[in-house]
Amino acid sequence: MRILCLLSIGLVLLLSAGVADATQCNDGIDNNSNGPVDLTDWYCKSEDDNDEGSFLSGLPGDDANSPAALDCWFDTNSGSGDDGCSIHACCGIAGECPDELGGAQFDPEQCSVSQQCMDNCQPLVKAGCDCFGCCKICTPENGCLDVFVNPAVSPGCSIGSLSDPLVCLPCVQNNDCRYQDSVFASGFEVALLVVEPLGRILERATR
Ligand SMILES: [Ca+2]
Ligand SMILES: [Ca+2]
Ligand SMILES: [Ca+2]
Ligand SMILES: [Ca+2]
Question: What is the pLDDT of residues 130-152, one digit of tens each?
């Protein structure tokens, strides 16, 4: 009887822990009613992301970086102390560095990524993206575009405005710090092992 009681208490604790950790990006619900659910949605950068309806995470302290000092976009905080990543957004901007991103202060000599950043951030990066939120997103309307979806760089960017270069800034992925092996599926590139059993591979990544 006592063992049964202990088991029940354990189960209740486990369930309440699960409820406490629920986010929009791990709740199994299509919160923004657009079809993709949780991590298959473009707007979910990790299971901790609590906003399935935008590129923001909805988490206190996240998405507060200056474009002049981006940390690892996928660690759901804005500090570079825990990841060792700090890079000017214009290191990844395709073309001129815009004034509003601090173009006057941009030094292209300061664009290297530390080993610490690679070690900490690469395991967190979502397929199709680099460490700083420059992601290859494919839609029937636009084909595949590399755009900064990180709100610190492109605050108004959404799937509907992907092809507007003034809203979703075109970018070049950081080769030293990005998700390495992935394939194109409808939407984000998707990790090979995730997409294969579902038979949703459209073509191999050509980066
Ligand atoms: Ca969800
Ligand atoms: Ca959704
Ligand atoms: Ca989000
Ligand atoms: Ca961080």
Answer: 999 999 998 888 889 999 999 99
CA–centroid distance, residue 40 to ligand 3 (Å): 12
| Main-chain phi, psi angles of 170, to 5 degrees | -60, 145
Phi/psi for 182 (5° steps) reads -150, 170
The phi, psi pair for 185, rounded to 5°, reads: -125, -175
Give the position of tokens 């950081």: 174
* Ligand 3 center to 203 CA (angstroms): 26
Indicate the pTM of the whole model: 0.82
pLDDT tens for 153-167 read 999 999 999 999 999
Which structural domain range is residue 156 located in?
Answer: 33-204
Name which of 15, 46, 205 is nearest 124 in CA terms.
46
How far apart are the CA of 57 and the centre of ligand 3, in A? 4
Can you give the length of the chain in residues?
207
- Terminal alpha carbon distance of the chain: 61
